[in-house]
Amino acid sequence: MEEKRVKRRIVLVPVPAQGHVTPMMQLGKALHLKGFSITVFQTQYNRVSSSEDFSDFHFLTIPGSLTDSDLKNLGALQFLIKLNQTCEASFKHCLGQLLQEAGDIACVVSDEYMYFTKSASKEFQLPSVIFSTTSATAFVCRSVLAKLNPDKFLIDMNDPEVQDKVFPGLHPLRYKDLPTSAFGPIESILEVYTEVVNIQTASAVIINSASCLESSSLAWLQEELQVPVYPIGPLHLAASACSSLLEEDRSCIEWLNKQKPRSVIYISLGSLALIETKDMLEMAWGLSNSNQPFLWVIRPGSIRASEWTESLPEEFSELVAERGYIVKWAPQVEVLKHPAVGGFWSHCGWNSTLESIGEGVPMICRPFTADQRVNARYLETVWRIGIQLEGELGKESVERAVKRLVMDEEGAEMRERAMDLKEKLNASVRSGGSSCKSLADFVSSLETKSS
Ligand code: UDX
């Protein structure tokens, strides 16, 4: 039936960063499978190359948008603010042209951080749909934070005694778990959140999550936001699609094939995290002392003041040759699926979190910034499938965490709970599951609007 529907077009506007591009492209694929034509508006920075998965997609570039060198000079938060200022007029112009050429546009789906799109959607009277690529709980946090008095909040955040207290209304999140350290000063972050959560002109919110993970946060949003909220994730299970911005080194799969079942610790800190040399050395020696095999993704430039791995000591290179493997970028989902993987040391970006739960792999959580602390707290205390490493990183705590996760009974129990969640997540995207139904409801809401 779906194939016969006249193809309507959906416009997608991703944030140009791996953790946002990936779920947006998966969403595009899911909507394409429902019969829509897809146009992706990209900036000049971090463009997705058209792969087999997107051969039918139409890619357009927003002229005048910022470039790689702008990011280097501005830092991530200022880059985002400037991107929103720079793109508003040119996007409006491009969208107007597309409407003239392609006619029927069902809606504009933009990443919540690409808030510049709202005025164009309003001007052309197109439904504006917000896509949140982070968890529902992180969305709740942003909504709560945007309403606070920034001066009072700043005083609280600077008080060391407040850090470990649970934030009122956000149990089990503590002040220190809030997403307030996103690459810039709190004042600027709160300013951005105010824009992000201003959804007055939006017709719906799509979230890459599932009700079996975050039912109370989703219920809170449904009540607060006054527009339909569609939890349709995890999208990598619903519509997997390759949108890696870096080249994947597949040789690590061959290495994994030679390891014992559930013995390997996989380490990856996502596409943005920057680690201090001191912490990297504690990680290295902790891994060494744990005696477990490890697969470590060290992204070039991710260790401060190093090009790649040159700050690792000579003895560690010998250990790597013996029972480790280092790559610049891995096919992460495939790695997590591999039977040799026993645990995932992660920065707890939302995609990595969903990918790990989706494969039933328990985690060591070492969050850096933004929503990662929220996810880490949920992994440890709500889903109970993660061990969080807090405070200063030491080789002893690293060794202990690896052993607890891979060798101890505690780790085996975490894996059992993770496997249970894996089943639930997979069921949610199958026919009849909550996320599958939610996607169908979103699609029929677009059909209702057109009639
Ligand atoms: C960013 C934020 O930091 C994160 O907190 C937010 O939730 C999304 O945006 P990032 O830090 O890159 O994302 O983390 P994450 O969300 O985990 O996304 C990383 C993606 O890169 C994952 O889909 C992962 O599979 C992929 N990846 C990572 C690889 O394909 N190979 C690797 O070697 C490492």
Automatic annotation (TrEMBL):
Keywords, alphabetical: Glycosyltransferase, Transferase
Annotated family: Belongs to the UDP-glycosyltransferase family.
Entry superkingdom: Eukaryota
Protein name (Swiss-Prot/TrEMBL): Glycosyltransferase
Protein species of origin: Microthlaspi erraticum
GO molecular function: quercetin 3-O-glucosyltransferase activity; quercetin 7-O-glucosyltransferase activity
Gene3D superfamilies per UniProt: Glycogen Phosphorylase B (3.40.50.2000)
